[in-house]
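Build the 3D complex.
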Amino acid sequence: MAPAALPMFDAFLLQAGYNATLVTLGSMLLGVAAGVTGTFLYLRKRSLISDALAHATLPGVGLAFLLMVALGGDGRSLPLLLVGAGLSALAGLLCVHLLSTRTRLPLDAAVGAVLSVSYGLGIVILTVIQTLSAGRQAGLEGFLLGSAAGMLRSDALLIGFGGATAALLVILFRRPLLLVAFDAGYAATRGVSPARTDLMLMVLVLAVTLTGLKVVGLILIVALLIIPPVAARLWSDRAGVVVAVAGGIGGAAGYGGAAASATAPDLPTGAVIVLLAFAAFVISLLVGPVRGLIPQALRRARMRGHLDGTG
Amino acid sequence: MIPHRQIAPVASLTVPALSISGLSVAYDDAIVVGDVDARFMSGTMTAIIGPNGAGKSSLLKATLGIVPKLAGHVAFFGEPLETIRDRVAYVPQRAGVDWDFPARVIDVVLMGLYGELGIFGRLRPSHEKRAMDCIARVGLTDFARRQIGALSGGQQQRVFLARALAQRADILLLDEPFAGVDAATEKALVQVLHALRDEGRAIVAVHHDLATVPAYFDHVLLLNRRRIAEGPVATAFTEKALAETYGTRGAAHV
Amino acid sequence: MGSDFVMLSLVPMAIAALAAVACALPGNFLLLRRQSMLGDAISHVVLPGIVLAFLVTGSANPWAMLLGAGIAALFSVLLIELIVRTARVEPGAAMGTVFTAMFAAGVLALERSGASGVHLDVEHALYGNLESLIWLDAKGWSSLADPAALAGLPPELTVLAAVTAVVGAFVVALWRPLSVATFDEGFAATLGLPVRALSLALIVVAAMACVAAFSAVGSILVIAMLICPPAAARLMTNRLGHQVWLSLGLAVLAALSGYVLAGYGPLWLGFADSVSAAGMIAAVSGVILGLAALAGPHRRRASSALSTPAARPYKPPNA
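Done.
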């Protein structure tokens, strides 16, 4: 066991090489961004829309690849693939909006429909690519569940930079975001447009999603946007603290998952990151001071003790 | 006593705090508010009353720009809302908010100051003191650092009023402020509102309880999609007007 | 066409149609109860259940997978309830937490267990392998009457047929209580209807449909079948009965035309290989929904559905 453990620790201690270190740090920043942004999504009760957004990136990724190849490239450029992903995600978001506002369909149905249809379309395009480039490994399946392994240095930088920028912007605009999340009608009377604030939030969520496509994959990025805030909520009743803790949990999960994935390249990175975040959630559920089960039980025992003591 | 902006007596006599003309609101193909005119003066407390579905909340929300209006003109102190927002405060229905939100009482009241602070302004101790003064005014000092979900219905309503107070607005619009609150809270809220009115501000409230109209308010606006009557309670709050607003049910109980 | 069609295409098309029907049926009610995302959740949580069944039985036995998935679905529902109740998290976020974590666990178990290579690798879990469900023993249309050949039918077909029958029986038998409880749960409860049991039963039935369909279209595309045909039907009629029948018709249409387009479309365009049938079925169901959204006779919301919440009821002054 000992020889196998050493490489793992190396990765965790950022000793496993420059590339692996960059990937780990980039994933950490992504996790922070997802936790922070996801908190405002959670407070605004729109967490599951991010699932539709994430799945809607798939057709765009495929089309971008095809376009690049048709124009003579090799289709591997991450920034260009992400541009395609972003455009189709925006189209998906527009469809969700139109379906839920112009028809009698409720929002959850609109989200589910866009999610599954765009995903299906994306899979069709993916299989088209598979048949066209039978000998070439497109590697696009890596966008489904994430594959930190084999990430380029430039990719890791892009991810880290993107994550950091998104996180900073969210923190900068936390006041209107909180105001609209808490009481949209009141926000409107104060001149803060809920529609515009929501749009800004979705754009930031999109940025985080695009940043996370390579590391966590589109199927699981929603987990990184949901689980850290849910866990963080159990630690505090103050929005600012919740945001910070969520960022911390997301960052730790990103860090740990990428480090683990660096040592075992066939581990699906996204799955490991998500399970780490879930582990943090379970811990929070047990010991979180505000809602944790153990503190609650202790409080109740103390209160019972008081009752007995004073009769 | 919270220091407040002095409203010039002459101005308060001529420029209505809120003036609505020809306001109509529609959802899809149904008109919920039809061509309503109304004026609300400073130093008065007006009740907007009418049966279910009469468009009272919609009128308020359209006035504040929360829902779009089909037609009509709204002016606060002679100006459009966008230019004069800091003088207008809104106290919504409690039901619209998630009380599990991670905010304490003082955090919510501080939200009332965001208009002054803007997005990036720094919160200073003076702001916190101002918030605490508003919290004290509604009698919630001991609850200032409690999470809002831990409060009773009446206390939550008081938090909303405290938030409006923090804005130091000259007109307050309230949507059913006494719905589902305990008697003590109702009394406390009325006291605060009367004090604000006596300071020269305008109070406009959608109200549900006909019995308390004469005691709490000095003016009424009777609404059933369109304006039925408007004016001082003594002259406008009559059996005839109520019968027209509610059908015969209202009249029988006055 | 004859014997080739029977051997290669008849069974996948039948499976696709059955899967679509099995999902559309409960999907109608989930849609009306605003529980469409439950389909998303179920189709994610069945993965670890299926992997578990595979690990325990050592084979890709559809019945075992059905059981495993059912257990996983039940487990997730209970876990979500627990989280909502103790941590006071709102249901959407609780669902998202549980189903993503369970899916991640399923993916990890798949990769580590060496299930890759046998029937269950991740890609198939994600988008199915409809095209491979061929009927090797068939020699032509006559095989439909030949017991020996019928014994060689892919087991997924039998499972789906059975599940579709169960789902259909459920909807028919419980039609009235389901309709009432879906429209107004409070009222149904006052009538003495066991609304919680009904709700749970609906979820179980939907889960069964998802799992049975999994072998055809993978665990995620099931959502398209749960939502799109019922949603399209919803925009085309105001009557529940019509909506359900219409959704079944649209589901079969999507399944069959999607399969044909995926299999033969590329050939018509001059390419050699087919594209993903499951993906195409989802895409076609999306097109159908899009058309319904643009032109469906009942696509708009009723104005009363948009009005502001009713003011407090008028209270007599001396009460």
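Chain B touches chain C through 31 residues (CB under 8 Å).
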